[in-house]
Design brief:
The structure is a homodimer of 374-residue chains. Chain A is 27% helix and 32% strand. With 374 residues, chain A is an alpha+beta fold. Chain A has 3 domains: 88 residues, Rossmann fold; 55 residues, 2-Layer Sandwich (Dna Ligase, domain 1); 199 residues, D-amino Acid Aminotransferase, Chain A, domain 1. In chain A, strands 10, 11, 12, 13, 14, 15, 16, 18 and 20 form a 9-stranded antiparallel sheet that branches. The first copy, chain A, has a 5-stranded parallel sheet with strand order 3-2-1-4-5, with helices on both faces. In chain A, strands 6-9-7-8 form a 4-stranded antiparallel sheet. In chain A, α2 packs parallel to α3 and α4 packs across α5. The termini of chain A are far apart.
């Protein structure tokens, strides 16, 4: 059996391991918390710091393949492991480009991939000197995740909310829709494209509110989206699974927002709604099997289940019975013992032939199911 | 989180644990082999003998709930645990009735549940004295599993193939179809019924060849099947999940063949083909959630993947790439290191709106995918 490791033990690792149990693969996970969501679902759990060179190197050196479920891993160790023959999904070079938002933006520019106009800013003083560029989005170069490290600066007075660190100042785009597309690439360069997903965001937390797949878009926009996300993935020159997040403007322009080089929240509906889920697909890539079928079985929606405001402590799921009674709904609780405001604690998928049913149930679930502390 | 244990660490446990990762539950598994298919997917693996009183009692005494993935567990320990307040799915009394084929047959008779005519036989001499009853099926009272412990005796000369142990001698029924129905019962006695499955057997190994769900049956037969399987489950008076296997004769009679008080091979298609899988459903029962939706998303078929004749040793999957290329097919490899002739090594599910597509692909998979030794 292939020995394959996952750096990170969160919910993405958990769902990867649920899918891994369909294949002959021996699984390894490294995370610093023995009670993390993925820790008990692997053959071998190794406690360690994914940001530390030695920890990552020691973890990977006897494995045949490695993947990540979070970008903040030690890429120098991955480069060393790659040089020694371990297969890394994604390649460390692609990860290095993506995990720094400055390099990521420059990558889009270099390859003529449409992305919102921007300046690289060395620190907050540099942002102040570009007050004429507002309204804009300030993104920290490294260390941002899940809405942290991103600030909308509408007026000069708001500049002080920005980061006093290298980053990019990006023109605020007049967004009509936010779209994500998951794409898989295998080692032979073959590509499988999932139908695009329409993401509806909670602007306050900058966290996903709900998403619907396939996105309802005119054919010419669909073509643009597919062409652009394909270009991103081809230029990254790496096998793996990628989520390309894009903005569609009211004028029908498409801009890449950012890319994740891993399984992604915007692909969770694929577990039930598509023939091959994003998790199944990544194992096919890692194990060298044929790519899976990305077609939709039924249209799907997901609602993220976030820790309620003002609740911190042992997680308790209010309204779970009511949601479990819904006919075409699938609950995924990530098994985190502690909740806190905005923490991703689970998600719920709805599948239905009727888009109205998806939207109606998404709102109902959103209003019914709450993660509180006991 | 509820602490729940599974006795047995085979593929049924493996699939139960894949489903458990959607819920807040702390999982325990007991099996005598640390490399069994379920061993690495639980929070706590305990090495022990599920047939041994002390092992089972020690395993269960600090848990809130226990289930089984095989009948051959120590039921005295389960009775003791039940008396001490551990919830057991199924109840030990139901398990006791079912695991002895003599008691099981008598249970059907007592409750006027149609089953093939039979005699209880104390030993092989008793079978010999009933030579006039042939052709018949001789079933050993306890210890049979997966086709072992069952012999078809067509002529008096074949009687010596029977078992010199207590058993039942059952009239050979003129079978048109073999049907299985999975039913879930929760602690409040509420019931959820899956659509019946048409099982096609390999008569040589007495192992499933392929199965199709929902079974294609006239309405009056469907009603009989549902009424009979409901009666079985109601009279067992136990929460849990049950698979009732039935024969339909050419004359349209329905006889119960046998019942399994657990998740079952005849329900594996429900992972992809039904809204709530049999594994999801059992967790709903154990955790006290509402019962799931048994409706079909798309019709499904499964093919069991058995170790090839003459192959014993490290498992190798021939034709896997070809099967993974099929559009609407889901592969489940159980991760057993060693194969041997007839061993259940995995299964493949097909879902499709078209019955012809299900049958065609089932045969193709059967002829393509082989488990051999290296």
């Amino acid at each position: 059996m292939v020995k394959a490791g996952i750096l990170g033990g969160g919910q993405l690792g958990r769902m990867l391991l649920q899918a891994a149990a369909n294949y002959p693969v021996e699984t390894y996970v490294m995370e610093d918390d023995e009670e993390s969501p993925a820790a008990h679902l692997c053959h071998h759990f190794i406690k360690g710091d994914i940001r530390n060179f030695d920890d990552v190197y020691q973890f990977g050196k006897n494995l045949q393949a490695l993947t990540i479920e979070i970008e903040s891993v030690n890429e120098e160790a991955l480069e060393r492991l790659e040089a020694e023959g371990v297969k890394i999904f994604p390649k460390p070079a692609a990860l290095r480009t993506i995990k720094n938002k400055i390099l990521q933006k420059q990558f889009y520019t270099e390859h003529s991939i449409p992305t919102a106009e921007y300046f690289v800013t060395a620190d907050l003083a540099a942002v102040r000197s570009r007050a004429d560029f507002l309204p804009a989005v300030h993104k920290i170069g490294t260390g941002g995740y899940d809405g942290r490290g991103v600030q909308i600066l509408r007026t000069p007075a708001e500049i002080e909310k920005g980061f006093d660190a290298p980053g990019v100042l990006e023109k605020l785009v007049n967004i009509d829709k936010e779209i994500a597309q998951i794409i898989a690439v295998n080692e032979r360069g073959e590509i499988a494209i999932y139908p695009p997903v329409d993401m509806v965001f909670d602007s306050r937390l900058n966290l996903l509110d709900y998403q619907i797949s396939p996105a309802d878009l005119p054919q010419n926009i669909l073509w643009k989206i597919e062409a652009i996300s394909l270009r991103v993935v081809k230029e990254l020159k790496s096998p793996g699974i990628f989520a390309v997040e894009m903005f569609v403007t009211r004028q029908g322009e498409v801009f890449v927002n950012e890319t994740a080089p891993r399984v992604h929240n915007s692909g969770h509906h694929t577990i039930e709604a598509n023939y091959s889920s994003q998790f199944d697909m990544l194992w096919r890539v890692i194990l060298g099997y044929p790519l899976g079928n990305t077609e939709v079985i039924l249209p799907g929606a997901i609602v993220n289940l976030l820790g309620s405001e003002g609740c911190e402590g042992e997680a308790h799921y209010e309204g779970l019975d009511e949601v479990l009674q819904m006919d075409n709904v699938f609950v995924h609780i990530y098994g985190k013992k502690e909740t806190k405001a905005g923490r991703k604690m689970g998600h719920v998928t709805i599948i239905s032939r009727e888009k109205q049913d998806l939207v109606h149930k998404a709102h109902k679930i959103r209003n019914t199911l709450k993660v509180v502390s006991k």
